[in-house]
Design brief:
6-stranded antiparallel beta barrel; Thrombin, subunit H; 2 domains; mainly beta; about 5% helix; 3 helices; single chain
Length: about 280
């Protein structure tokens, strides 16, 4: 099946115009998050390929954790915003950089109400080529600490190992993100396509499917009666929670219509936690 990274580039054409009444949400299915996970943020950044967005989680007053493919190759600063609703209709609130070749600067982001930080990528990131050393982990170190949002707590080392196959299939993980939904762009026989708006934080409950040393795989079909939805483009780096702990973050999905299996990078393993410790981030 086709492997997709759940990342959305702002350079893509949008599928909604002002005045068009079309249901479009972030995580496919699920529900509006509201104030449910205030420590989950939208991040925006530039690479040589253009401007993109992902999701990240505050895990200390100065550090957000996200996917490596949301940090590698970042040019300039990363934009950060914790609002649950970023934009209901075009144009996107995430502004263009004054000079895309340089990327964002801290002063220009501050001028439009965004926080800023510096991206770092796990040195063992395998670029989706080595399942045993996936390491799709990155961080954004903020230029100034956050004092009014409680950071998420990272699961202790080996936390997910308690879930055997039978238990895993009946265990639900809460995924959160600012991604797109795949839906029809209008009435009639339109092919479902990625909807860019609204950009809003949503969540879904996803049952476990498979666990290995690096990845937690969960079911992401919003028509699955066991769960409520799954991740999509733009949810990359977004957290999955269980019993108050962040246990993983969104890495990839299978297929192109965001209604299949989702792959989540484990955050409860030593190769991740040892690297996060360099940035002062400790597990719970």
């Amino acid at each position: 099946m086709k492997l997709r990274r759940a990342l959305m580039a702002f350079g893509l054409a949008t599928f909604l115009t002002a005045g068009t009444a079309v249901a479009a949400s972030a995580i496919t299915g699920g529900g509006l998050d509201g104030d449910g996970h205030p420590n989950v943020a939208l991040i925006g950044f530039y690479t040589d390929a253009g401007r993109s967005r992902c999701t990240a989680t505050l895990v200390s007053p100065t550090v957000l954790v996200t996917a490596a493919h949301c940090t590698e190759g970042t040019v300039g600063k990363t934009a950060v915003k914790f609002d649950t609703l970023i934009d209901a209709t075009p144009p996107a609130s995430l502004p263009p950089a004054v000079d895309p070749a340089v990327g964002y600067t801290a002063p220009e982001l501050a001028a439009v109400g965004y926080l800023s930080g510096t991206a770092h990528t796990h040195p063992g990131y395998s670029h989706f080529t080595d399942k045993k050393n996936w390491n799709d982990v990155g961080v954004v170190v903020l230029d100034s600490p956050i004092t009014d949002i409680e950071p998420a707590t990272i699961a202790p080392s080996g936390y997910l190992d308690q879930f055997g196959p039978k238990v895993l299939s009946t265990t639900f993980f809460t995924t959160v993100g600012y991604g797109t939904e795949i839906s029809q762009a209008g009435p009639g026989p339109h092919k479902p396509t990625p909807q860019d708006y609204p950009i809003v934080r949503r969540f879904a409950e996803q049952p476990g499917q498979k666990l290995d040393a690096q990845l937690l795989q969960v079911n992401g079909n919003d028509r699955d009666p066991r769960g409520t939805g799954g991740t999509c483009y733009g949810d990359s780096g977004g957290p999955a929670f269980h019993d108050g702990y962040q246990v993983s973050m969104t890495s990839y999905g299978l297929g192109s219509v965001c209604r299949n299996l989702d792959g989540l990078q484990r955050i409860d393993i030593p190769v991740v936690q040892d690297w996060l410790a360099i940035f002062g981030v400790a597990a719970g």
